């Protein structure tokens, strides 16, 4: 089985207590598998509980859903990289579509966050994805490649080793609509070609996200271009999520 990465983005839900109960059930339903990595992205409030509850399993890592690029200061409501690391995070999502389109995060800001994470030795999960009107205008590749270049501006080959890219078409997130596996694989191939133009020497994992569930995950993961999945809704139930990660072995 080739290496696969399964990432759960819990967004603005799952309290610390619910995190502990989730972990107990999930850990009971799964065992580590060679080559399969599991990441959980709880809210900042539940990160320490997640790190504690999942801590005994070397195949599981915790990440923040967002970080600020400044290490400290007067940024009410924001999470710095040292704070996230202190709570047990070893990586973070950057430029998730909800950060871009609900909170107005720009390409330049995503680039700052990626560089700050890599400088601190953490893993950066750079999310890219086109809106429905951009897809309908035939701009999918142009949009995701622009987001990729901006997010990775100034990142050297060494830093690329701690980058994961997630392709999440905005119109597929939380809507029950998703790209066909072949469609997604085409976009992944374009991203991969650009990653190598940008100096990546090793294979950068490229994940797919957007209404992934037990019914479609197997078909997506059968595409050699798709190295894993980033999942919202279907990662909230421990048994359901255990079944999905079971596709990886
Ligand atoms: P859904 O799986 O709920 O569509 O969310 C996808 C997502 O945004 C993961 O980051």
Concise overview:
With 249 residues, the protein is α/β, with parallel strands linked by helices. Helices cover 40% and strands 16% of the residues. It has two domains: 1-65; 72-206, Alpha-Beta Barrel (TIM Barrel), CATH 3.20.20.
Describe the structure.
Strands 1-2-3-4-5-6-7-8 form an eight-stranded parallel barrel, surrounded by six helices. Helix 7 packs across helix 9. The protein has two domains: 1-65; 72-206, TIM Barrel, CATH 3.20.20.70. The model has no long low-confidence stretch (mean pLDDT 96). The protein has eleven helices and eight strands. The chain is α/β, with parallel strands linked by helices and 249 residues long. The longest helix has 17 residues, at 181-197. It binds 1,3-dihydroxyacetonephosphate. 1,3-dihydroxyacetonephosphate (13P) binds at residues 9, 96, 168, 173-174, 209-212, 230-234.
How are the SSEs ordered, and which strands pair?
Layout: E1 4-9, H1 16-29, E2 36-41, H2 47-54, E3 60-64, H3 81-86, E4 91-94, H4 97-101, H5 107-119, E5 123-128, H6 132-136, H7 140-151, H8 157-160, E6 163-167, H9 181-197, E7 206-209, H10 214-221, E8 228-231, H11 238-245
Parallel strand pairs: 1-2, 1-8, 2-3, 3-4, 4-5, 5-6, 6-7, 7-8
The structure holds 1,3-dihydroxyacetonephosphate (13P).
1,3-dihydroxyacetonephosphate (13P) binds at residues 9, 96, 168, 173-174, 209-212, 230-234.
């Amino acid at each position: 089985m080739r290496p696969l990465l399964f990432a759960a983005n819990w967004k603005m839900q799952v309290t610390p207590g619910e995190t502990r109960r989730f972990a107990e059930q999930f850990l009971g339903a799964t065992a580590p598998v060679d080559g399969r990595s599991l990441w959980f992205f709880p809210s900042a409030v539940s990160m320490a509980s997640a790190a504690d509850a999942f801590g005994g399993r070397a195949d599981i890592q915790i990440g923040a859903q967002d970080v600020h690029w400044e290490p400290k200061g007067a940024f009410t409501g924001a999470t710095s990289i040292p704070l996230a690391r202190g709570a047990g995070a070893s990586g973070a999502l950057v430029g998730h579509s909800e950060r871009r389109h609900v909170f107005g995060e720009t390409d330049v800001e995503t680039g700052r966050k990626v560089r700050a994470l890599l400088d601190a030795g953490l893993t950066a999960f750079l999310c890219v994805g086109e809106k429905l009107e951009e897809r309908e205008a035939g701009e999918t590749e142009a949009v995701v490649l622009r987001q990729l270049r901006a997010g990775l501006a100034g990142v050297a080959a060494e830093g690329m080793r701690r980058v994961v890219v997630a392709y999440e078409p905005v119109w597929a997130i939380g809507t029950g609509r998703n790209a066909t596996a072949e469609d997604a694989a085409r976009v992944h191939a374009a991203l991969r070609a650009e990653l190598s133009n940008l100096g990546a020497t090793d294979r950068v994992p490229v994940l797919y996200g957007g209404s992934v569930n037990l019914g479609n995950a197997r078909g997506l993961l059968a595409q050699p271009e798709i190295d894993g999945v980033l999942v919202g809704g279907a990662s909230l139930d421990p048994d359901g999520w255990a079944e999905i990660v079971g596709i990886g072995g």
